[in-house]
Write a structure and sequence with these properties.
The chain is of the alpha+beta class. It contains three helices and seven strands. It has one domain. The strands form two sheets. It has a five-stranded antiparallel sheet. The chain has a two-stranded antiparallel sheet with strand order 3-4. The radius of gyration is 15 Å and the shape is globular.
């Protein structure tokens, strides 16, 4: 994996950090489970430090990239459309996100 690629923050119901793989990756987690992914898949890290690989198709269907400016925006500052509150998501989008 390219060491120069940076972590980005995405959201679904939970915030995760992720980076897209630039080459195949195989690793064994602390529980002894083997994870493998191809170029284009995503290495995902949860808030408690657990890492897993998610296919590109599934990841891009579920997660929405947060605008880095909206993460540090002070309270009351307008956030971008990519970080809109859940209440403004249409019922169809909400159903798809929870499927």
């Amino acid at each position: 994996m390219n060491e120069k690629s940076t972590w980005n923050i995405y959201r679904t119901r939970f915030l995760v950090r992720a980076r897209q793989l630039t080459q195949p990756l195989i690793f064994t987690d602390s529980l002894g489970r083997e994870h493998s992914g191809q170029s284009g898949d995503y290495l995902v890290e949860t808030s408690d430090g657990i890492r897993r690989i998610t296919s590109r198709f599934l990841f891009e269907d579920i997660y929405v990239l947060l605008d880095q400016d909206s993460i540090a925006a002070p309270e009351g500052v307008q956030k971008s459309a990519t970080s809109r509150p859940v209440s403004s998501i249409s019922p169809a989008e909400r159903l798809r996100a929870t499927a």
